[in-house]
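Quick question, first post here. What does this chain look like in 3D?
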Amino acid sequence: MNIYFAGPMFATADLLYNDYLVKKIRELDDSLEVYLPQENGAINDKTAYADSKMIALADTEKVLESDLLVAVLDGLTIDPGVASEIGVAYAKNIPMIGLYTDTRQQGADNTKKIDALNTVGENQFHYLNLYTVGLLKLNGSIVSDEQDFLTLIEKQLNA
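> Answer (accepted):
Ran it through. Tokens below.
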């Protein structure tokens, strides 16, 4: 099975988290082929040069070769590259699994947090772009826990 890993990749924390998750995914099964864009030095060595067309063609080719796209949705907003990769996967009906660990989603049953939504500037929850989320959900699901994420990947392996 070919898996495309879509995640933000410009801060050291992002790179380390991506490496961590991909290591966990690869441990699920020796036959897995996981494409992690940051490992593709031809287009993502930031000390070298790759133009926009080179990056778009290389990553789109890998999305289209995938049997599953997994995506990290955390950040101030969904990373624009991740959103684009989700769009390509949706258009080609490639199954997807999103991981959204933002802790601000906790407390959805807390009435004070819900009541705060009626006060300007007091939204206690984080917002994700609903179009991108919708595309992902139409071809898969979103979980908030790494173990659930890995379990869903395993289920795709066995499907």
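The radius of gyration is 17 Å.
Residues 133 and 142 are 8 Å apart (CA to CA).
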